[in-house]
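User: Batch of two.

Assistant: Item 1 of 2:
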Amino acid sequence: MLMRTRTVSLALGLVLVFAQDAIVVSQQARRLFAPEELGLLEGPDRDEWQKPEEVMDRLEIGEGARVADIGAGGGWFTIRLARRVTRSGVVYAEDIQQAMIDSIYRRVGREGLSNVRTILGTPGDPRLPPGLDAVLMVDTYPQIPDPVAVLRHIAAALAPNGKLGVVDFKPDGSGGPGPALEERVSADVVKRHAAAAGLALRSHETFLRYQYLLIFVRAEGEVKAGGLPPYFCLLPSAFCLVPSSVHATGSTFAAMAAFTMSIAMNGTKPVAIADVSVWPGRSESHDTPPAKITARPISMLANDVK
């Protein structure tokens, strides 16, 4: 009984962490960077404090690589990536604002670069091609309304040995450039989102004075974009899906965390948890349990924890 109580307490603690993350990111993602303010991103000392060459070195980006720049803005990092991969490589510059895409197109033309392709993404899907050697997300994370969804699409686009690099400002105010402290997202929050999206942390780089660089790779057994990872809630849905094998071992506490994260993100209290007898290959929402899935009352969750 004591063990069960401790396990449930740990699960509820994890639930609160995910709920807080969802609230923080939702509040921070309300404002996209305005195209007319691009000049603020390209100060003469940015090369010095952001160290783009070293960032690319840590991601092992070299000649012939296929890479993507997420939230590319005006293309400051895009053109540096394009020069690094040379004409034998390609850079996919993605942004969800057409004005930014237009700005990149003009910049690439001025620079005489022929290896840049622009992508107009959506807030939940950067629409990346598969088989990417590296994906870079610089000074973008706090503007993403649903980071787990975006990270899952990125994970699906990575080549088997591909890497994702997230560069953003430290939340401790270390002085220097960057947004207001309340507009920053900590490295720990990004790590939790990445884990939920099927990514594994390879390294947390600290060589940047004002920023962190997190490098992720695909975790073993990750799912494709649109599939369902273990303990994944169908959003916005009243059900959370968990493999039957998980219930067989009694390991339901992670499902409880995902289950309540659904509450935080949707504002709706789920009413059931479902065992997945046949693992679906796509993401759907259901008002009632779909075929071949057995609903379990939420009151049974605590009883499932052994």
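Item 2 of 2:
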Amino acid sequence: MKPSALLFLILAIAAEVAGTAGLKASEGFGRVGPSALALLGYALAFYFLAQSLRYIPLGVAYAIWSGLGTVGSVLLGLLIWKHICTRIFRNLSLKRSVRFANTCRLSMWDQPEGSRADRFQ
């Protein structure tokens, strides 16, 4: 796997979190600046995710993207908007998302050369 694949995935996660922050700040697309951030963030997130899919299997890439994007959005909610997470939500959402993303990330490195993921390139 190329190192650029991981870079594309990290950029996709960052863009998704930025888009989600813009979506919250836009107040239902009522504010122009945050609305533009939301649209640009999501467009870049899908672009970078699509680029990472050239090298990373779909299930692995999507699991990491959605899991770490969820963690990033929850952390932004806590830091910027002072959203309070209950103990149940924190335990179920953050810990499981991180564990699942780590499991998928580790299994991504176990792919031998010439595996099925390489056939689609």
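Helices lie at 3-25, 32-52, 58-79, 87-109, 116-119.
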